[in-house]
Design a protein that fits this description.
Blueprint lengths: L4 E7 L4 H10 L3 E6 L4 H6 L3 E8 L4 E2 L2 E2 L4 H4 L5 E4 L17 H12 L8 H16 L3 E5 L4 H14 L3 E7 L7 H12 L3 E6 L1 H8 L5 H22 L3 E5 L4 H6 L24 E3 L7 H10 L4 H4 L19 H20 L8 E5 L5 E5 L2 E13 L14 H14 L3 E6 L13
Parallel strand pairs: 1-2, 1-3, 3-6, 7-8, 7-10, 8-9, 10-11, 14-15
Antiparallel strand pairs: 4-5, 12-14, 13-14
Helix pairs in contact: 1-4, 5-6, 5-11, 6-11, 13-14
The structure holds xanthosine-5'-monophosphate.
Length: 432
């Protein structure tokens, strides 16, 4: 293993990820560990140079106040503490994340003598070694949606084990324009991956026909996806591993020993028992920006690596109510136009998420001197840090006009374009 590591010990802090990120910002790899880690477990981790113990408000677990054990204190690693009373001395955690790195710089480099060798080249080299060790000459399966995480996992595994990896791309008809084609182009044609492309468009749209309730739609899309994936998996022989694009926030948000769960991590819980594979999760220690940097270092195209967030049920929740093919195409085409126009004027990457919605009602308009009764398209653009709240940014009028003109000229059965000005709360980012 190439990289030095500083361990962040969770002693009840709510700021563990902020500290881990601050250490990584200094160029040193870091991982968060539970307060009850043993000295031998610590020593088994590769290249640990020191420990930062983070005290905080969640320091009572099962009614007992937690503390640094003597065996960890005596394990021979330099220890720094935040918000934790050690011999009457407390180092307060800086309020501002940007100041954490300054507070620990001298500890990391002078006391721990850590080498700042955390970079994507070393990360990739380390992961290749780990994946080869875990998998040997056996076979791995991956559901490759074409999203950032699964694409980066695929590229990393192709580099590590080549054709021992089989990727399954399920086209459920709810992806953005050009996405299924790009998955085939990048992974099958350029990276020579073993890629199974499943055209499941009719199957999904038939299942969704007439279903208007958003949660019901989500359930159908999720369940059908598992069913299609499972059918493909059963056709394959000798697969022992399932690769997943789990990333660090998925793990941290699933709860630690001192903090409550924020959200459940949607992993393969849905696969039947006889299809339970061992997991390969090479990105599970990366934050989202690091996943993108890894993808870039692996040579994936920018428009795959730096794409905006896209919901699992895809365009299905942007074609409001019961999905019909004509409105689904109107969502797909108008979304592509909006993205093209944003890219043209340099807004790509500057606005967090932007897309279009097509509701399930019509309005009166006029086209070629005749009355027309057609669908509206709604434009949505938001900025947010954590998707819990969101603001609508001010956008150049000309861009909005250009998008409007193009949608009205190029998308069939649309006679009206609106812009949604609502922040979250009270509106959510998606309409369903
Ligand atoms: P809302 O609409 O709740 O969205 O304000 C917050 C963020 O989550 C995305 N989103 C989803 N992502 N499955 C997902 O994977 C879903 O069912 C889903 N619903 C919303 C949404 O695009 C936004 O970024």
């Amino acid at each position: 293993m190439k990289q030095d590591m500083i361990v962040v010990l969770d002693m009840g802090s709510t700021r563990n990820t902020d500290v881990a990120r601050a250490i990584r910002k200094l160029g040193v790899y870091s991982e968060i560990c539970n307060f009850d880690i043993t000295a031998s477990e610590l020593k088994a981790l590769p290249n640990v140079r020191g420990i930062i113990a983070n005290g905080g408000p969640n320091d009572v677990v099962n009614g007992v106040k937690i503390g640094l054990s003597d065996e960890v204190k005596n394990a021979g690693f330099p220890i720094y503490t935040f918000d934790y009373n050690e011999n009457g001395k407390i180092n307060p955690m800086p309020e501002c994340d940007g100041e954490i790195a300054d507070a620990i710089r001298s500890f990391v480099f002078d006391q721990c003598k850590a080498t700042p060798n955390w970079n994507m080249e070393n990360f990739i080299a380390d992961q290749i070694e780990l994946i080869r060790k875990q998998v040997g000459n056996r076979k791995v399966l991956l559901a490759l949606s074409g999203g950032v995480d699964s694409s980066v996992v695929a590229a990393l595994l192709i580099k590590a084990i080549g054709n021992q990896l089989t990727c399954v791309h399920v086209n459920h008809g709810l992806l953005r324009k050009g996405e299924p084609e790009q998955v085939v182009q990048v992974f099958r044609n350029e990276l020579n991956a073993n890629l199974i492309y499943v055209d499941a468009v009719d199957r999904f749209l038939d299942k969704l026909a007439g279903v208007a309730d958003p949660e019901e739609k989500r359930k159908i899309i999720g369940a059908e996806f598992i069913r299609v994936f499972e059918e493909e998996a059963r056709k394959l022989d000798g697969i022992e591993f399932l690769a997943q694009g789990t990333i660090y926030p998925d793990i941290v948000e699933s709860g630690t020993k001192t903090a409550k769960m924020v959200k459940s991590h949607h992993n393969v819980g849905g696969l039947p028992e006889d299809l339970q594979f061992e997991l390969v999760e090479p990105l599970k220690m990366l934050f989202k920006d690091e996943v993108r940097a890894c993808g870039k270092a692996l040579g994936l195209p920018d428009n795959m690596v730096f794409r905006q967030p896209f919901p699992g049920p895809g365009l299905g929740v942007r074609c409001l109510g019961a999905i019909t093919r004509d409105r689904l195409e109107a969502v797909r085409e108008s979304d592509a136009i909006m993205r093209e126009e944003f890219a043209k004027c340099g807004l790509e990457g500057k606005v967090w998420q932007y897309f279009t919605i097509v509701p399930d009602f019509k309005s009166v308009g006029v086209r070629d001197n005749a009355r027309c009764f057609d669908w509206p398209v709604i434009m949505r653009a938001v900025n947010t840090v954590d998707a819990m709240t969101a603001e609508v940014p001010e956008l150049p009028w000309q861009v909005l006009q250009n998008i409007t003109k193009r949608i009205l000229a190029e998308v069939p059965h649309v006679n009206r374009v609106c812009f949604d000005l609502s922040p979250k709360p009270t509106a959510t980012i998606e309409w369903e």
